[in-house]
Design a protein that fits this description.
Length: about 400
């Protein structure tokens, strides 16, 4: 039986020809064969030419996500396993004695739309975020175990985007046994990841290289780490010889783990203060108290998931960056990040420039940050380019 067939409207085949992996609902002329949610469909141009095989997602505006542009490919367990295998092998060079974790599968950018997998030591955490991934859960688990040698796979498909796909959240063990906290070594530093309850899959692996850079810059500095989560940038700064590290987050649970990470790495707990607070309010308090720092990290959550949220997000980014620039001593450094897909690198730089202007601070951009190499951005999928950061030097 031929697969269900989707025919695009005339002139709406351009993005697929550019190998962009999404098919929007508005581009579709006709659907034949009544595909079930998550089923593979053959996508054709208006003139009948084959364009791609995609996963059908009837609830989402992103109605199809491309598995393959090759008419000879069949989407089955072997296809999924081959994609998992190449994604895992591409990251072999990122794992060694000093690093026991990395992202293994980065969705569309690894040719596996809607699928995320992160490795922490011997544990793999998977997220199935699109309905097209659902039929392949078992194949995915088997392939991940086979490719990594790990025996534990835990599912954290509880991200909000599942709702857009008409899917309920799903969390639980898919293979093996999960320790309460999973040991992870990053840049030689020890962390214990709460895979079952932590944010996302438990740890923000995308900031690996940037934590290392902060470590290199921290020597002798008074550090302020805003949105510190389980302390990644704080631990890195302390390991780099920071004189002090004030760290703020609104998650009590994350701060508890953060404090444990100081002890785990035999770092001096007297150099660090954890504050359970709202960063927006706390930065104002620090300003009113005339506090000053030599290195400030701002790594907020995603203020703008899509471009539709950009205006409100712009105000929030500007606010915290303005306050941070005021709190910096002359000669100090601000490492400021945005993980909002809806805010481009260009816009983010403009926001930070506006913040400096309003703060009446003379500052220069000295470095740019991006995600580490385990979070590649496929060139046909610019939407994957979400994490950007700037290192700003406040001039004396
Ligand atoms: N820098 C961290 C990751 C930050 S994730 C790392 O390297 O691991 C963003 C963090 O911001 C989360 O821990 C979340 O709890 C916190 N957060 C979100 N809104 C906040 C707010 N208004 N004030 C303080 N913390 C906030």
């Amino acid at each position: 039986m031929p697969p269900p067939r989707v025919t695009l409207k005339a002139g709406r085949d351009k993005s697929l020809r550019l190998r962009h992996p999404w098919i929007f609902s508005g581009a579709i002329e006709r659907v034949e064969g009544a595909p079930a949610a998550g089923a593979s469909v053959a996508v054709h141009a208006a003139d009948g030419e084959f364009l791609a095989t995609a996963a059908w997602s009837p609830a989402s505006q992103i109605r199809g996500r491309v598995w393959s542009f090759d008419p000879h490919d069949t989407i089955d367990s072997a296809f999924i396993a081959a994609k998992v295998h190449s994604a895992v092998r591409r990251r072999d060079f990122l794992l060694d004695d000093r690093h026991t974790g990395c992202r293994l599968i980065h969705g569309e950018s690894d040719g596996l739309p809607g699928i995320i997998a992160d490795r922490y030591g011997d544990v793999v955490v998977a997220q199935l975020l699109a309905v097209g991934a659902e039929p392949w859960r078992d194949a995915l688990v088997a392939a991940l175990c086979e490719a990594t040698g790990c025996s534990t796979v835990f599912e954290r498909s509880d991200a909000d985007v599942r709702a857009l796909e008409g899917l309920p959240p799903r969390v639980g063990l898919l293979a093996g046994a999960l320790p309460e906290r999973v040991p992870l070594v990053e840049d030689g530093l020890a962390y214990r990841v709460d895979v079952a309850h932590g944010q996302k899959t438990g740890f923000y692996l995308d900031q690996r290289d940037n934590r290392r850079r902060v470590r290199e810059l921290a020597q002798g500095r008074d550090v302020l780490n805003c949105f510190c989560y389980t302390g990644g940038f704080t631990i890195a700064a302390l390991a780099g010889g920071a004189r002090s590290a004030l760290s703020i987050d609104s998650s009590t649970e994350a701060l508890r783990h953060a404090a444990a990470h100081v002890a785990d790495n035999a770092l001096n707990a007297e150099h660090v203060e954890w504050r359970d607070a709202d960063v927006f309010a706390e930065l104002r308090k620090l300003r009113d108290g005339a506090r000053a720092f030599d290195l400030i990290v701002l790594d907020p959550p995603k203020f703008a998931p899509t471009a539709g949220h950009a205006e409100k997000a712009t105000r929030a980014y500007k606010d915290i960056n303005l306050l941070a620039l005021k709190l910096l001593r002359p000669g100090g450094l601000l490492a400021t990040f945005s993980c909002s897909g809806g805010v481009s690198a260009e816009l983010f730089q403009k926001i930070v420039a506006g913040a400096a202007l309003d703060a009446r601070v003379d500052a220069a951009l000295v470095e740019r940050f991006g995600p580490s190499a385990d979070h590649p951005v496929a060139l046909n999928f610019p939407e994957g380019d979400y994490l950007k950061g700037l290192l700003v030097h406040k001039r004396a």
